């Protein structure tokens, strides 16, 4: 200790000399400090990661998005690593998947992890579906996690979690509510050689979630100035507009509804506080134009009606079509005008078979230009007979047979 | 093109470590000698499950007393907010998740290994040093226990083990100096079941963090804590809510005060007659200014000289 104190009396002096010294050094010499730089060549520093790390939100697919090799074949497709959901094209339905999966990754130390695949996949329908776990798959068989997730934590590409993390994240993302009694060794990993009871397979197989009944109409009373009453037709969005559950129910899991740590209350949905933004987001994703007034009304809304909403009654063929056939696949739906030719680009003189409009033209009318009757080619209005026939009008008289 | 090899990376940081042991690469305060390949560690709070395995592994790696790993799953410790101290170089705290009370947020804290460490600047005897690999480590033999680093650190990290009152020891995360010497990952990174801690090259880690935020804009706020805070830190964080709510201090992007102060501290700390030293200082300043003058001339002649030098 004594030595230490004496030594430190010299410290200020040494410090000052060092500082002066470092300033006096020829410039080049200071570079010495960079000694342990440059273990990697420039090339290595700037290289791209092997998997597709590009813009996930806006991905356009080419062959190269999936295949690394120049000439992919069936036996050697040369697939890239993990381009994720955007490209998943096909999945077996959940009831075709295995009922229970045994994960034997650590079989030297622990008993197998028994995963109840069936109930998890069933309930995943409430969330984003199979893709939640199988977030990358081609049209082929379901890929093994090991295909992308390396066994080694100390590895080249750390942007993709290692296998241990990949497994744990799948489980722990939802089962975050572990505790001492509900921890790793009781839920999943039992130490080999101990008499901890393995999870009961049969119990697992028998487990079923009661059928979730879909709500039809939901009404909220808000304190919004724009209108107190909000009506939401759940059934219309799902059945009529064919919007997938997971468009709104994103990233949901059991704990959104059930407090597993509170057995008394595990049947009752828990109250989740949502921020203003979170509340409005599912609606605003599509209804982003006439924002507040679209939902906030003074009184309860009536169900959707194409005639009153769009000012155009769906008749004949149109009433049988799915919305997206005309209004496009992407949300919000594309607005259309009432002109037939806006959609039916092939409705041109000589090409159009008038029978399709529900009226076979008589011989006299067949050869005429469209705009002789449909003034200015505006098909949204009834045809005008007056230009030729003073005494006739549509629909009392008709230029053909219905 | 081949990806950079992780073993090589660990090896290089390990090399850095051994070089440090020989005293070759230590720098004081300044960032000009930081390696481009320096270490970064990302704490992804959206992935951390609060298992506290990292706390256990850290203690074991540093020969600190600890209970068995199983006891760490007792989450009653989360009732109180904890800070790293002499018994724990890293601690995990729990925070409320407004969106879903059943899925709390966990945040691991430890020394941030600042890019411009205030503790290093404040250390009057040069015991604490910033390494080219990014880590901030210290020399126990030099430390005199003045506690300036504790005061200077904006994250209140360094703590002291006073058990032997005349021979105090700094206690803080050393980025697992000893393990990295053996080309091993830091203990906490190695054990984390969810890989919530991502160890790599700082530049690469930032890119991965950005990608995660971009891919899940609903899950993360658009902010990497530590990318720029007080000049940047080696440990960085991404989270779903404001960092202030996770008790990460809202610091600006300017580094803490510089190196000049420590000379002043040095003078008074040792009760050396100031007059004598001022005379010496005067000489130093005179030499320094002359030297700087030359530098300026050189800079005018060669404006594109060595980028790092003019920072
Ligand atoms: S967090 Fe504190 S102790 Fe760690 S490097 Fe920064 S200033 Fe120093
Ligand atoms: S890097 Fe090492 S010293 Fe730092 S917190 Fe992790 S285990 Fe502890
Ligand atoms: S080991 Fe990983 S998941 Fe567990 S508390 Fe530490 S950082 Fe979080």
| Assembly type | heterodimer
Give a quick account of the main beta sheet of chain A: strands, pairing sense, barrel closure: 3 strands, antiparallel
Report the CATH architecture of the largest domain in chain B: 2-Layer Sandwich
* Unreliable runs of chain B: 18-31, 259-278, 292-311
Order of helices and strands of chain B: HEHEEHEEHEEHHEHEHH
Supply the helix-strand structural class of chain B.
alpha+beta
Order of strands in the sheet with most strands of chain A: 3-4-5
Bound molecules: iron/sulfur cluster
**CATH topology of the largest domain in chain A, anyone?**
Cytochrome C3
**Beta-strand proportion of chain A:** 5-15%
Number of helices of chain B: 9
Radius of gyration of chain A: 34 Å
Radius of gyration of chain B: 21 Å
What's the pLDDT, averaged over the residues of chain B?
78
Average residue-wise pLDDT of chain A: 70
Alpha-carbon distance between the two ends of chain A: 112 Å
Shape category of chain B: globular
**Poorly predicted segments of chain A:** 1-9, 15-59
The CATH class label of the largest domain in chain A is Alpha Beta
Look at the helices and sheets of chain A and give the structural class.
mainly alpha
How helical, in percent, are the residues of chain B?
Answer: 25-40%
Structure overview:
The complex is a heterodimer of chains A (402) and B (311). With 402 residues, chain A is mainly alpha-helical. Chain A is built from 17 helices and 7 strands. In chain A, strand 3 and strand 4 (229-233) form a beta hairpin. The radius of gyration of chain A is 34 Å and the shape is elongated. Chain B is of the alpha+beta class. In chain B, the strands form 4 sheets. Chain B has a 3-stranded mixed beta sheet. In chain B, strands 2-3 form a two-stranded antiparallel ribbon. Chain B has a two-stranded antiparallel ribbon with strand order 4-5. In chain B, a hairpin with a 5-residue loop joins strand 4 (128-130) and strand 5. Chain B is globular and about 50 Å long. Classes of the chains: A mainly alpha (402), B alpha+beta (311). Chains A and B meet through helix 1, helix 2, helix 3 and helix 6 of A and helix 1, strand 8, helix 7, helix 8 and helix 9 of B. The structure holds iron/sulfur cluster (3 copies). Residues 48-54, 92, 106, 108, 191-194, 196-197 of chain B line the site of one iron/sulfur cluster.
